[in-house]
Amino acid sequence: MSMRTLAVCLLVALVSTASAFLFTSAHNGLTRLSMTAKNPFQLMKDPLKNKGSSFSKKEREEHGLEGLLPNGEPLSLELKVQLSLENLRKKATPLDKYLYLHSIQDSDETLFYAILAAHTAETMPLVYTPTVGAACQEWSRIYRQQPRGVYLSTKHLGKVEEILSHYPNKDVKVIVFTDGERILGLGDLGTNGMGIPIGKLALYTTCAGIRPDQCLPVTLDVGTNTESILNDPYYVGERRKRDRSEKYDALVEEFVTASQKLYGRDVLLQFEDFGNSNAFRLLDKYKPRATCFNDDIQGTASVVVAGLQAALPLTPHQQLKEHTYLFFGAGEAGIGIADLLVSAMAKESGLNPAQLSKEDFQTKLEALRRRCWFVDSKGLITSARLSQPIEHHKVPYAHPLPADQLAHEPVKTLLDAVKIVKPTALVGVSAQGQTFTEAVVKQMLHYTANPLIFALSNPTTKAECTAEQAYAWTDGKAVFASGSPFDPVTLPSGQQRVPGQGNNAYIFPGVGLGALISKALSITDEDFLVAAEALASLVSDERRAQGCVYPELKDIRHVSQVIAARVAAHIFETGRSQLPSGGQAQRRTHEQWMQVAHDAMYVPKY
User: What is this structure's pTM?
Assistant: First the structure.
């Protein structure tokens, strides 16, 4: 290479480096500053900086954009949102709409989040459940080559920190990461599960105003055991069986350590869609030393407990501890719900471990735990099954049958379990569609006038029953909630029922924002109980009169703000905050925490 050529290359590199934008944090999020040098193509290809046809005349002159854009008057953000919605509604399928929205995200994130913020109820099902399930199933075929997130493998052991440092955004505050083993109710999708971290982080920004440049999606590519994926010639992940060796744990450890080193001890790490064999043990391992939680265990639990609390005025049983709960599915979601529900019942009962002996407290807690029963793939979980190996997380819910029911052991079917347990609440977390049959639901009416039917499995095809079925089989008496959205149902009487969607998006964005503004060192189950109580308190009497136990999605930013304020206050009060203990935070009221949360929330604007 000649000296002249070398000089030209160095000059190009310097110009490229100098063209980067500077970002500062304003009270409402991301602000754009002038480039230090002109590089129009780099500017227009960066979705965090690009405005497209909305660049002002002055900006076009300053940044060398003249002639690279149409010469008409710059379009306002509001007008572009309107146009995007018109184009979105012309798309034929939900997956087409998903792809259209993400093409906008890849070119102009401000516009993308302005659309989601203004039309949350319409767009949330398109960027997350149920459509994200279809997107993950097709991920290798729809992968758009646009850099978004980080893919790590056991082949990267020893250089995870270096790889993370390649990511251009350095002020990362929230990481959602998955190993792809249990994607929604779809099973082991391997690297194809990357749609979940990307979707969850879109909700962090939409619902709680976490700045998009502070969000990092990560996939731990440790293989997949799904043969159809391994045989797919287009599969973008590593083509090997899932790694169950010590290298798996080493990768997780190196990732957590590197994330904290690069982004701070209080970087929020959200475990997402890990399989049962890893979900509980990894959460238990890292809770004491990282600001982390598992949304499938704790977030799902919080949103369901909130729905159950909000439903109490609609049932003859006015306290949680008066209900009997039967869970269909005994994985991480079901056990997580039951654990938090028992904590809620204990709080409702005034149980305080500081005021009771350890033995008395455990005895009373066990009595509450016996309000919760589980059916798994082998049938009703009872103490009789303890003679055989059983997953450790199921053991606390392996109760003895009443003496007059022992002849029915073992109880194999859901219907038989309903007849024996006599539940007033049925919670579906099985990922088995249409398993809440007419006979099962009608049997519930023998034990309560208003059965709680929560068919929570995602996506919609995995829901244990539909809203229309639950209302039809109970003459509109059921209180129904689901994981994926269902349309309102008009009863034969002319009354309308609005199904509640137990969407984790009501919980995890607000908890995450609360952790950020309090500089949390840890996140506990009690934080999620605080979040559940906050969410339940926001359900209006008008919504309840329609049979709905969750707020309207259009209000979700306010919901997240309230949850963030209450969770942040709880974190600070329990000594898990890095904020100065004797400073201003010590005297903050709820209203002041609300203001802190408000000021931290990003608002998409040019």
Answer: 0.91
